[in-house]
Specification:
alpha+beta, Immunoglobulin-like, Pdz3 Domain, 3 domains, 6-stranded antiparallel beta sheet, 5-stranded mixed beta sheet, disordered C terminus
Length: 497
């Protein structure tokens, strides 16, 4: 007992000088900051007559420049126990470089009575810093001198010079056949963001020239949510050498031909009744519509929860573990894609792929290709069963797979998007029947995909293997040939159930 009390006292002594999160922050406003703006911090528990310690830190995004970090101390006054006012001067905007968007955290603290620690609170903030009118006019005059390759016209759009005073610049025209046109951008859409920068004016649309691509956020009246589109810069859209592409396709063919995957490719389609297929097609169309029209469901995490529910129903109906096994493999593949895209947002995952097939995650990187193979395996474990419980699981899993790995749906027309997404999901259901992996091999591939996805945060695989998409095409072609052409199939021991 004495030893326990001594340990508790020791732990208390060691943590006695930790800061205390005893304050409460409710809001930080306004979100738009100009010189002379009074930043109002509202909360509870602010001590009157004390000087607050205010720190603003986070990532700073500016037009045409790489992302930077900010860690600045601000001077403020406590007006009441629920209000702190912070005057914003030109010095802070100068330190930011003028027009900027900050995505980070604001921390408010007060020195405790023991003078050894702080009482504090922190709040996530996103603030847009806007220069004064004179600075904006100077920027407007220099707008015509922006490098042509990085202007909006390079992506096929023309932006209005009209400034609304709120986030968003209207698209006045879209060039037919351009990148923006292929991704479904229409006139009267509004560009509201470029990478981490909020767009208020045409001059804000200036991509970082050090990046190979940019994420553009587009909003459309009548549609809920914001669509994230991945737009490559001119350097990444140059036509590749046909000979180089051919060489990498042949390398992919050779690699897949001699890999252990070739031993696992075998059609194992079950005789599913037409009525079951009709029900499954109807479910695919229904879940595709839910994906497009319900904003709450446009998150990969929500679909994981749904798949978990349907997998449980399948397990209860069949008293088999296949549903649990399929869910585990599917979740691993979904996590790999979320790591690669660095988001759980369905719209941003689609934007990270682009309209070109070679940019789909089914071909894009080593991690995504392996995750795609494992996802097909997970889908095939259940999709061959004719039961309704199997269809309830396979249909949403196929729709999610179409979003994660084969580009999702086009932005232009929601109902066209439902049709395209449904067709892709059905094709994945058919493809899942041509791949049958041993459990150990599937586990190994799944863990490898996760490891490569995490390593991608530190290693640029695109630089190491610049034509990986072409190589992955060769891999997929080799596996399809082995599955479709009987003389080309490799003989192996039966795969245990």
């Amino acid at each position: 007992m004495r030893a326990v009390l001594f340990s508790l006292l020791l732990l208390t002594a060691c943590s006695g000088y930790d800061d205390l999160a005893l304050l409460e922050l409710e809001s930080v406003e306004p979100p738009e900051i100009e010189p002379g703006t009074i930043l109002r911090i509202r909360g509870n528990g602010f001590p009157l007559g004390r000087s607050p310690q205010i720190v603003l830190r986070g990532d700073v995004f500016r037009p045409g420049t790489p992302k930077q970090s900010l860690d600045a101390e601000l001077l403020g006054q406590v007006r009441s126990d629920s209000l702190i006012e912070v005057p914003i001067g030109a010095e802070l905007l100068d330190a930011l470089g003028g027009r900027a968007t900050l995505d980070g955290e604001l921390r408010v603290g007060f020195r405790a009575a023991d003078e050894q620690r702080d009482v504090f609170a922190a709040e996530r903030v996103r603030l847009d810093f806007l220069p004064d009118t004179a600075s904006q006019l100077m920027a407007e005059a220099a707008d015509d001198h922006v490098e042509a390759a990085l202007q909006p016209s390079a992506f096929g759009i023309t932006l209005s010079h009209e400034e609304l005073g709120t986030p968003g610049v209207r698209v006045t025209a879209v060039e037919p056949g351009s990148l923006a046109d292929r991704q479904g951008v229409l006139p009267e859409d509004r560009v509201v963001g470029l990478d981490g920068l909020t767009i208020y004016a045409r001059r804000d649309f200036e991509p970082d020239p050090s990046r190979s691509d940019s994420t553009v956020f587009v909003r459309r009246d009548g549609l809920r949510g914001v669509h994230a589109l991945r737009w490559p810069h001119e350097a990444t859209t140059q036509a590749a050498d046909p000979l180089e592409l051919t060489v990498f396709v042949l390398l992919g063919l050779l690699f897949a031909w001699i890999s252990p995957l070739a031993l696992s490719v075998r059609p194992h389609y079950a005789q599913i009744p037409r009525t079951a297929w009709a029900a499954r097609l109807g479910l695919v169309a229904a879940f595709s519509a839910l994906m497009l029209f319900v904003p709450t469901l446009q998150w990969a995490t929500m679909w994981i929860l749904g798949l978990g529910t349907f997998a449980a129903l399948f397990a209860l109906a069949t008293r088999e573990r296949l549903g649990t096994q399929s869910l585990a493999f599917a979740v691993g593949s979904v996590l790999s894609v979320m790591l690669l895209a660095q988001t759980a947002s369905i719209a941003e995952i689609i934007g990270a792929q682009g309209p070109e097939a070679l940019r789909w995650y089914a071909f894009q990187s080593p991690a995504s290709v392996l995750a795609f193979v494992v996802y097909l395996h997970a889908l095939g474990l259940v999709s061959a069963r004719p039961r309704l419980s199997a269809s309830l699981y396979a249909a949403p899993a196929a729709v999610l797979g179409a979003v994660l790995f084969v580009g999702g749906w086009p932005l232009a027309d929601p109902w066209l998007g439902v049709a395209v997404l449904s067709v892709k999901a059905v094709l994945l259901l058919l493809a899942a029947g041509a791949l049958q992996l041993r459990q150990r091999l599937a586990l190994g591939i799944g863990f490898t995909a996760l490891a490569l996805a995490m390593a991608g945060w530190l290693i640029d695989f695109d630089a190491l293997v610049p034509q990986w998409s072409a190589m992955s095409v060769g891999v997929i072609c080799a596996l399809v040939l082995r599955a479709v052409v009987p003389p080309l199939r490799r003989v192996s021991a039966p795969v245990p159930a």
